[in-house]
Amino acid sequence: MGPPSWAMLGSKVMTARVDAHALRQVLAKAYKALEALSPEEKDVVYKHVGDLISDVPEKLKAIESSLDMLNYALAHYGKTILKDRLSLDQRSEVESSFEPSPDLVARMARMYVEKKGL
Fold this sequence. Notes:
Strand content: under 5%
Number of domains: 1
Number of strands: 0
Number of helices: 4
């Protein structure tokens, strides 16, 4: 798989993940609307579509998990693709952005010591 196909897959996975999130928001609104019903109305709704109401969140969670795993795999695979396309200077710049600065490390250590009263 080359860079264009990897990028297209990554884009589609992210789009699907955003769509899954939007679907979760729609479900939340539907559940809120159900809560506003009278007990008798809820009984009717659950009688006709109770299985759907119960199963959809679990299925959506499975879809989100699969998309997250695929996205992670693509990110891991893409690391090599992207790294090979960068110059040594660009790689160093990116990699150094993930390293904590000495000031940050010292400040965190000082805060820890102060909090523990050491």
